[in-house]
Amino acid sequence: MDQVEIEVVGRSHEGRGIGRLNGQVVFLENALPGEHVRAQLTQKKRKMRMGIAQEILANPNPDRVIPPCEFALTCGGCSLQHISVEAQQRYKRQTVQEQLQHFAKIKIDDLDWAPTLSGPNVHYRRKARLGVKFVTKKNKVLVGFREKSTHFLTNMSSCKVLDERVANLIEPLQILIEQLSVKSEIPQIEVAAGDDRVALGFRHLQPYSDADKVLLIEFAQQHLIDLYMQPGNTESAHRIWPLEGTELLHYQLSLPLSNNSVSSNTLTMQFELFDFVQVNADVNRQMVRQALEWLNIKSSDRVLDLFCGLGNFTLPLAQYAREAVGIEASDAMVDRGYKNAQFNQINNIHFHAADLLSVAVKNHLDAL
Predict the structure, then answer these.
(1) Using CB atoms within 10 A of its CB, is residue 33 exposed (0-12), middle (13-18) or buried (19+)?
(2) What is the overall mean pLDDT for the chain?
């Protein structure tokens, strides 16, 4: 594709810079408003083009910073690392405000905005799906995220956003998979990180040999990970190390004993490899405490938590309310919610499976 010079005049909701070339809109990765950039065009569509800014020729935006990750320019796992953390937060707030104003017709100037919740900007991501590809021509296995605007995998050896325990495994995983007889038949690895352990799930299109299984289990033992095999859909995933029956991954939530107390009690939230959990553990803890503060639950209240997942908010709410009710479309998540309630000895809680996007949702809610 061509290299071009473009003036960046705006920014999209996805964080790309916006410019124009011969009457067409161009969306540019690594470009900020006001900058004059040299860009490599990567895709051409009927009404727009895509590209990546490779050099800032003039007028660098004051919000621009050097990305913490050496692969940020090409890797599609991140899109805003070239922007300061403060500017990222400001930009995301502006995006929410624009959406509320445009779609909900809310006068944003009339709203009282709470301070932005924030946490570490590196090694915070505890859930991910990593691509795997054996490149025959290079006789090399790639493990990581896809490149920006392409289906190719990034040739990466580390990652600044993944949980550090997982980031440190990228190169060892490449070496491991290169030794497997089915190295061309592993398309992805599912990642989940708990407070004390990490789980990896290997999707495989062909059965492993006995020698493969020995190598995989030795790797799990050496790096202290929970190892899952996934021959088909997510329901086919099963743990092969440690043996079935051992405890699940978990994260903890420390809660005030009362809304006015500085003391806390701790809930343990258990989850499996494919369960949904909030990606950023630190921000999740802040969100739960913020919700409790805002809601100011009384002991006589009955609280309804929609799209409740495994009970991330439902269980904390139940600590203050007369009763908490969680609704989630997934039967598996309802079961996980009940198991988490039982594990934490919480009895004033009920979960229901219902499609909250269905026209019949009113009947489900009326029945509660």
Answers:
(1) middle
(2) 91
